[in-house]
Amino acid sequence: MYYDAIENRHNLKHDPFKALVTPRPIGWISSLSSDGVLNLAPYSFFNAVSDKPHYVMFVSSGRKDSIYNVEDTGEFTCSLSTWDTLDGMNISSATVPADADEFQLAGLETSPSNFVAPPRVKNAPAALECKLWRTLEMPDVETGSESGHFVVFGQVVGIYIDDAYIKDGIVDTGAMRPIARMGYMDYTVVNPDTMFTLNRPVVAEDGTVSNTSAEKWDGTYA
Prior knowledge:
- This protein is mainly β.
- It has one domain (17-195): Pnp Oxidase, Chain A, CATH 2.30.110.10.
- It is built from five helices and 16 strands.
- It has helices spanning 17-20, 65-73, 86-91, 102-105, 173-176; strands spanning 24-25, 27-32, 38-43, 46-51, 54-61, 75-80, 110-111, 120-121, 126-138, 149-161, 166-167, 170-171, 179-181, 187-189, 202-203, 209-210.
- β4 (46-51) and β5 form a beta hairpin.
- The two termini are 38 Å apart.
């Protein structure tokens, strides 16, 4: 099939776009309002956008509490959502009043951050402490002050990693079992059985390519 993505007339039960751009890591964003109300919400439009310096972004459809809080205080924390915290992540996605504390709603404990005020999820194996750089509003198909999609860019100023997941100087991501969003209401999980290693290719002067696969990473970035 082929269809015009602007008109979006795909004739399917649901828009297939998010089932194609997968998997998407989940940004489990905690923030504080200017009045000190704690908020926690997962965002599946989330990713790292730079590594020197470290920047991440998340996108909100409409102005939600997370956007207001981050813009008011200039800070947020992103906890890694994993298989072990799956239920808490899902519960924290519920639509609740602005004065509701999703940590309490989901039965999650907090742990203090070192460089920002919003805490992280205590049971999360890793978390990013972020300072707001900029919020950008993307145009929407509907007009109105609360419509649109808002992209929040944050510089990572502090990183927490549970020492239990550091082995031989490398983070054991598979052991953390992070989850990711697929299309519709589908999710997936990363574990050691679904991970594999590819070394960067080396092209010789004669044009031949070598070193493209290996059982173990050779420890160098090409």
